[in-house]
C-alpha cells in the first residue's frame, strides 16, 4: 500500500474513468429554478440576483469565475430568467448556458447593474447573493427600493443534493481515492512534496478530471500546520505523511485526506491517530435527520476531550470545525461547527475531518465525506483502516 512503485508505472496503470456519472439534466435545472422561485416568494422578494461562481453554475450550468465585470442571473418570481453579461462574452456564455433565458448584455462603458434592474422597476424587493462583490451589491442597493439577503434562497436549494448530484460527487471522490492509492505507492526517501503534488495532478488527469482542484503534501512536522508550510520538503524514513487533495467532476468536488506512517513513528503519533479515527467515527455515528449540525462537531470534541485534548480549540486538540458542506463549492453551507444549528436533512453532504494538532510537532487528519440518509450517514469513501494501512 505504501512505497514500492514509481510515478510512471502508476500513471501507466490509470485510464479514463469508465463509469462516468451523467451530467445534470435540463429538467433538473428547471426544478432548481422552480424551487428557488418558491423560496424567493417565501422571503418576500420579487427577484433573486445570483453572482458568477458555483451558484450561477447550479442554476444555469454556466461555470464562470467572478471578476470585476458583472456576470449574474436575475431570477424573477415570474417570467424568463435574465442573464447579465458583457456583450463581448456572449458566445462564451451561450456555449455553457443550460436554461432558457433572456440576455441583458452590456458594453464596457455601460452600467451592468442598470441592465440587470431594467425589468424590475424601482420598487422591486431584491434578494442578493452573499457572494456578490461589495461594489456591485452597493449599486444594487441604490437601484431598487429594498434588498434582502439571498442566502436563505440559494442555500435552501443547494444544501440538499439530488440523486444526480450525489452520483457526480461519488465519482469525484472515488477518482481521488484511486489517486491517493497511487500516490502512496510512489513514496520513497528523498522524494519531494512538489513531485508528489505534480504526480497527483497528472493522475487526476489520467482518470479524466481536469487535474487536481487543490493538493497539499506534508511530511513530518509540517503535518502540524493544517494547510502546510510554504516550502518544498523531502520525505525521510520514519516520517508521518499527510496528503489532502481533490478534483471536480462536472463541477462537483472531492476532498480526501490520508495521514499515515512512512516507516516507524513515535508511540504518541500512533495513539493520536487512533483517537482521531475514534473522533471521526463518533461524528459519523451522531448523524441523523433533524440533528443540528453543531452536534456533530460536539460529538467529535467529546471524544478528544475524553482523551485529554482541548477543550474547545485549545491545542493539542482540534483547531477548526469538524466538517464543511461540499458540492459545487469545496466549502459551502452548512458547517459542522458550534453555532450552526441547521438541522440535518437527507441529501446534505459533509466532510468529516476532526484534525488533531500537536503544535510544531505533528498533526493527524483523516478526511472522508458522507451524505445524510433517512437512517443516518453513508460514506462516499471508506475511511482509513490503520496508521500503516491508508486504504481498505
From TrEMBL:
Domain Creatinase N-terminal: 32-160
Domain Peptidase M24: 168-374
A Pfam family assignment: Creatinase_N
Keyword terms, alphabetized: Hydrolase, Metal-binding, Metalloprotease, Protease
Keyword Protease: yes
PANTHER family, A to Z: AMINOPEPTIDASE, AMINOPEPTIDASE YPDF
Family recorded in the similarity comment: Belongs to the peptidase M24B family.
Name of the protein this chain belongs to: Xaa-Pro peptidase family protein
Species lineage: Bacteria, Pseudomonadati, Pseudomonadota, Alphaproteobacteria, Sphingomonadales
